[in-house]
Amino acid sequence: MSILETIQSGKESKPPRLMIYGQEGIGKSTFAAAAPNPIFIQTEDGLGEINCKKFPLAKTYDEVMAELTALRDEPHDFQTVVIDSADWLEKLICEDICREYCVKTIDRVPGKFGTGNTYVTARWGEVLDLLQELRDTRGIMPILVAHAKVETFRDPENTSYDRYTPRLLANAAALIVEWCDGVFFASKKLRVTKESSGFNTERGIASAIGAEGGERYIKTIGGPACTAKNRFGLPGELPLSWQAFLDAYRNGVQE
Question: Which residues pair with 15 in a beta bridge?
């Protein structure tokens, strides 16, 4: 068969690969729990108030991989797999590598500077390979939940500025963001006003916009404030709601 006969056309009807990240308690896990028939792989103990199906709390990287392998190989009817959270999974990855090399911290792994981080990224590659298999062979949608951190972004065309990113090592975060079809930053709408604090200085006072401490939303397109992206033609902001995402996703896919 000629290699030209393998050329494909048209859109693929595979589940999206998603990451949602943000501050603690914003509603990331609740968002993921509303996805179709989810199973949670929990690496941190934070699902007690959410009605969902979940594996026991994973305490090692090998336990996580065993759970993903079981979802790939054994019969079940789950349609979504949620890793909650990615940053705590990275902690397990680091602990696994430190045990292997008999060191206390990842930066003490023998080799050139950054060798430990390289090993962490390689382990993340193994996780993503299994998630990809689940998506491709069983039609299971992968969702990664993560916390946020503020980091300084050194823009080569402008001055440096701070922005929100997933709380992961830089190389691992870059790999995951590239792999995902949608990376969403969850936050609350706030209004910041300036107030004099004496001695010719000012401070910002934040007040919520909306009920219950502020209207919760997700950013779906990146900018100076945060890392975000989507391949579905979504609006730049959506309510922090699975239904709101699903409606916008369907509209984008149909166009």
Answer: none
- 168-217 pLDDT, tens digit per residue, is 999 999 999 999 999 999 999 855 445 555 555 555 444 445 445 568 99
Q: How far is CA 4 from CA 1, 12, 36, in A?
A: 8, 19, 37
pLDDT tens for 64-87 read: 999 999 999 999 999 999 999 999
Tell me which residue of 224, 230, 226 sits closest to 249, measured CA to CA: 230
Angstrom CA distances, 22 to 10, 63, 149, stand at: 34, 25, 8
Residue 199 lies in a domain: no
Rounded distance between C-alpha atoms, residue 135 and residue 124, angstroms: 16
Q: What does pTM read for this prediction?
A: 0.88
Please report the sign of the dihedral spanned by the C-alpha atoms of residue 150, residue 145, residue 174, residue 187.
Answer: negative
Query: How many distinct structural domains can be found in the chain?
Result: 1
The domain in which residue 82 lies consists of 15-187+216-254
In a domain, 173, yes or no: yes
Q: Domain with 182 in it: what CATH number?
A: 3.40.50
Specify if 198 maps to a domain.
no
Average pLDDT of the chain is: 89
- Give the 3-state secondary structure of residue 46: coil
